[in-house]
Amino acid sequence: MSRAAGALPLAHRPGDRTRTARLAVLGAAVLLVVAILVSLAVGPTGVGLTALPRVVMAALGAAADGDLAREKLILVDIRLPRTVVGLLVGAALAVAGAVLQGLFRNPLADPSLLGASPGAALFAAAMIAFQGTWLAPVAIVLGTSAVPVAAFVGALTATMTLYVLATRGGRTAVATLLLAGVALGAFAQALTGWILFTADDRALRDITFWTLGSLGGASWSKVLAALPLFLVAAIGVPLLARALNAFLLGEAEAAHLGVSTERAKRIAVVATAAGVGAAVSIAGVIGFVGIIVPHLVRLFTGPDHRFVLPASALGGGALVLLADALARVAAAPAEMPIGVVTAAIGAPVFLWLLLRKRPAG
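Above: the chain sequence. Below: its structure as tokens.
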């Protein structure tokens, strides 16, 4: 019997979840396609996907009716960049949460816990509030990239500060990193509050709405400005799958398996800072995505980060797009901040996950 069991292919051995994990990734991809279609179709203007063929035919040189310019403006210049931004933001936040949870073996780790989101929010808020005064030279030089770059610098500054505080003798203490992250995040939020207190009415309104999260200001120029930061995260994260699987056994065990633990931590810090910084800069602070999506993904894929990371990217993009579509129609013709929707969805799901894992008795 043991010989027959040993002869089975790995994907068919008892307890192996490779096939289920692949199906989960495929299901997340299908969900993302549905979310993209919903995002393109939903809006208060009455223009739906039925107008898309006419826009495509006009782009190919076919005759167009008189309403084509309006339909093209809504679909191509407003909804499409908004959909692209929502996909990138959701993927970045969910993957950042999956990376940090795997790196620190802590299911509650997310970008805000380690100071990346508060740091990005602080620097971006400062750029919004003071780009006409003492930050004017920086804003002039960076142009449309000013806020994305500021958010990235803030996220990277916060995470690197934590890394330096928690590292002694070339070794990083995970517990110190997490606790220092809480303190640094609270300090960054306090400074953001001071900026809100000193900002003028225009900046105050922009920052207040921005801190609740929104895809309303999405445009192709913002996509291009933040795209290099998303690419940094997209290049760095796939390099971490094997290391994160080894970290599940413990840091010492990962080192014995040949994993360069400090190199993996540095890649995780830079990739997380880049992705979160870009996401916060163009969409504001959107909560719960980095916690909820990796948890839900692991229910189907298991702990293997070869599947957790891509499934989290697909699921995070789908969640943000669906939440944004709901935010557009829930209070139409006004628009609800997307952070309110994700919190309303994420908090009950998170409580359900906690109660589900609660020991009996």
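Confidence is low (pLDDT under 50) at residues 1-12.
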